[in-house]
Structures are given as structure tokens and as C-alpha cells.
């Protein structure tokens, strides 16, 4: 399959790349690295990415920033970080990507454990994940040409625990290699509208 | 209690108003009617509303538009309708309202059944509801001064069934009077981080 992997150099993206690149033709896209450059906060940039890549069998999206910190410090402006990238960025990858997706292709987006098992400081991230999760479930009912759509919700990553463990007391870290398997399940499996939780 | 009711003239808002106005001092806010005018898509307008109303014991938010229709017609621009009002509008009512909320006050936001029980055409609404739902759950852990936050998720409203029943086959309509009770539960009860489903 021809797979477009957006965010291929992040912790999750690179684990996904290692797992799927021996099995599929993978095109990578990222803000500063990759076969194609894309700024997912810009609809023009997303469209330019698809124009350059052409028709694909699957799109996997792993990027998305968000403000992490006390609610009292979460201003509407800081909340825009997650809205523009993790939320709108990922949803626009789908809305603008449908015309470039081959029949029975698939979209796999990324959410995270904060939507299910919230922590202090994680309201903005949770908001974006909750949005993507509910969008996927509803959009799966309405996709043309048998196109599937799922999302992977990773727990606290083993690789990121030094940076984030203070926010996630008692959360068991999961290795990127385990999380990557969920993307493979979405890519090569037959389900749609699913949340693949790796907690 | 001094309660600020935003969206008081809508189907839900007016049912909430009838139920709570005999019990509390209710200030109403809306785009074109009410004690105060507010455009919830503008942070300046939300702040001006709070400046005009002053300290409150509770805020209830019932407004929020969204595009309802086939996914193929859901452009990024049409998706902005829900993002700007139902999603960001409601969340900014909280983020900008915290300084105006008295100790142990409460915010009650509005979501909807499409996030749990999706239908064709409802991806944009579901997205906004999922965002607000996950935000409420996470933000409740981090609210200052014992402030509570909940949301009410109404099913298909009896009063709106003529307009929407084609999108909701087999959904049992619920009367606005039942939905309004859930807002009263959030307002006068003690729970936080809850989803009050009225399906």
C-alpha cells in the first residue's frame, strides 16, 4: 500500500515508520523533515501536500501539539495550540484528504489517554482528543467509497516519561513499539470508527 | 444564587429559564436578546459580558451552532461553525469566566447525543460535543476555589424533532422540561466533572 505518514519523526511517528516501512511504500510528511513538508495548521499547506503526493491507500497522522499546564494558565490563546494542530489539523487532514484516498483506504488519527483518564494540566489536550475521538466515530458512518477511519489513543509513552511523568502519577508507560502495533491494526485491519487504546 | 444563563431563548435555554428563574436570580445573555448581549465566538465579547454582569454563582451555557449534513459537504470552513461556537465559544466561557465565578460556583455546558450515539451528518456536532465533554472531565480536576464544572448531553429534543428527525431514525425524543432538570441537578447539586445524559 502507498501510505502517507504525517509526523514521521516524532516519538510515535518514528516507531510507526520502523514498523510499517518494510511492509509498505511509505511517504513521510512533516513540518521540517520528510518527503513532503506540511504545516497542518494551514488548509492550503495540507492541500499542497496531497497535490504533491497524489492518490494514497492510507493516511496516518501522528502529530499535534498542545499546552500542558495548570487550568489557571490556560488562556484562550494557549488553548488555540491544540485546537489548531491536534484538533483542526488532524480533522482537516481527513476532510481535505478524502478526494486523494483510494477506495477502501483508511485514515488513522492520534488521540491520547487524557481524554479517558484525565490529569491536572491536561484539559487542552483532552479537549482535542475528545474532539477527534467523537469525530472519528461519527465520520466513520458517512465515509465515501468504503474508506475507513480510526484513531489510536496512546498512554504515557515510555520514551516521553522523563518529560511528562510528573503530570501522570501512577500511569504505566507504554513503549512506542506497542503503540505502533495499533496503527498497523488500523492500517491492515478491516474495522472502522474504532478507538485503539494502548494503555 | 446569581445565575448567568447564556442562550436563554433557544429551545433548551428557555426550558432552563422557566425551571430556574422562580428559584434563582437569573441574568440572561444572548446574541440578539437578553439582559446582556454576547457573541460567544469573540473573546472580547465574552469578557465584556462578564464585566457587565460582575461576580456570579453559576454560569449555564446552552448555545452553539454546527453544520449538519453529509461528510462530503463538510468543508473545513463549515466545520468552523461548530469549532467557533459550540466548542471554543463554550470553553472560552469557562476560561474567561473563572475570575468572575464565586467560590464553589459552577459552570454547566451543553453537548449532545451525537457524541455517544453518532448519526450520519453529525460529525461536526459530535466533534464539538466530544471536545467539550473531555474538557469538562479534565478541567474539573483543576478548577480553583472549589468551582464545579459539568455538562448536559440532551438527546433529540421533542421540540426540534420536526426539523431533525430525518437525521435521527429511531431516537426517542426527550422533552425540554426533562432536559432542563439536568441543568438544575448540575446547578444545585454537588457533583463535578459529570456528563448528565438525558436520552
What is the assigned CATH homologous superfamily of chain A? NAD(P)-binding Rossmann-like Domain
Q: What number of structural domains do the residues of chain A give? A: 1
Order of helices and strands of chain A: EHEEHEHEHEHHE
Side-by-side strand order of the widest sheet of chain A: 3-2-1-4-5-6-7
CATH topology of chain A: Rossmann fold
Summarize the structure.
Chains A, B: Belongs to the short-chain dehydrogenases/reductases (SDR) family. Two copies of one chain form a homodimer. Chain A is of the alpha/beta class.
Secondary structure elements and their pairing?
The structure is a homodimer of 199-residue chains.
Chain A (H helix, E strand, L loop, with lengths): L1 E5 L4 H10 L4 E6 L5 E2 L5 H11 L2 E6 L14 H20 L5 E10 L12 H17 L8 E7 L6 H4 L11 H13 L6 E4 L1
Parallel strand pairs in A: 1-2, 1-4, 2-3, 4-5, 5-6, 6-7
InterPro entries (chains A, B): NAD(P)-bd_dom_sf, SDR_DHRS6-like, SDR_fam
Family (chains A, B): Belongs to the short-chain dehydrogenases/reductases (SDR) family.
Keywords (chains A, B): Oxidoreductase
Overview of the molecule:
Chains A, B: Belongs to the short-chain dehydrogenases/reductases (SDR) family. Chains A, B: This is Short chain dehydrogenase. Chains A, B: It holds the Pfam family adh_short_C2. Chains A, B: InterPro entries: NAD(P)-bd_dom_sf, SDR_DHRS6-like, SDR_fam. The structure is a homodimer of 199-residue chains. The first copy, chain A, is α/β, with parallel strands linked by helices. Chain A has one domain: Rossmann fold, CATH 3.40.50. The first copy, chain A, is 38% helix and 20% strand. The first copy, chain A, has 6 helices and 7 strands. Chain A has helices at residues 11-20, 43-53, 76-95, 123-139, 161-164, 176-188, and strands spanning 2-6, 25-30, 36-37, 56-61, 101-110, 148-154, 195-198. A 7-stranded parallel sheet of chain A has the order 3-2-1-4-5-6-7, with helices on both faces. The model of chain A has no long low-confidence stretch (mean pLDDT 97). The A-B interface holds A 43, 70-72, 74-76, 79, 83, 87-88, 91-92, 95-96, 98, 114-115, 118-135, 137-144, 193 and B 43, 70-72, 74-76, 79, 83, 87-88, 91-92, 95-96, 98, 114-115, 118-135, 137-144, 193.
Amino acid at each position: 500500500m502507498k501510505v502517507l505518514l504525517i509526523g514521521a519523526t516524532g516519538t510515535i511517528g518514528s516507531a510507526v515508520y520502523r514498523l510499517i516501512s518494510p511492509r509498505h511504500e511509505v511517504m513521510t510528511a512533516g513540518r521540517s523533515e520528510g518527503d513532503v513538508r506540511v504545516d497542518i495548521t494551514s488548509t492550503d499547506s495540507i492541500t499542497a501536500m496531497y497535490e504533491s503526493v497524489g492518490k494514497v491507500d492510507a493516511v496516518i497522522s501522528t502529530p499535534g501539539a498542545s499546552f500542558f499546564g495548570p487550568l489557571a494558565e490556560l488562556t484562550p490563546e494557549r488553548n488555540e495550540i491544540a485546537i489548531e494542530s491536534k484538533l483542526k489539523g488532524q480533522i482537516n487532514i481527513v476532510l481535505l484528504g478524502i478526494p486523494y484516498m483510494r477506495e477502501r483506504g483508511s485514515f488513522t488519527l492520534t488521540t491520547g489517554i487524557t481524554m479517558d483518564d484525565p490529569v491536572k494540566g491536561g484539559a487542552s489536550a483532552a479537549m482535542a482528543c475528545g474532539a477527534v475521538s467523537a469525530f472519528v466515530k461519527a465520520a466513520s458512518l458517512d465515509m465515501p467509497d468504503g474508506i475507513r477511519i480510526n484513531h489510536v489513543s496512546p498512554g504515557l509513552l515510555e520514551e516521553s516519561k522523563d518529560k511528562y511523568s510528573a503530570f501522570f502519577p501512577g500511569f504505566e508507560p507504554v513503549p512506542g513499539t506497542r503503540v505502533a502495533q495499533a496503527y498497523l491494526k488500523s492500517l491492515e485491519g478491516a474495522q472502522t470508527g474504532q478507538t485503539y487504546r494502548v494503555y
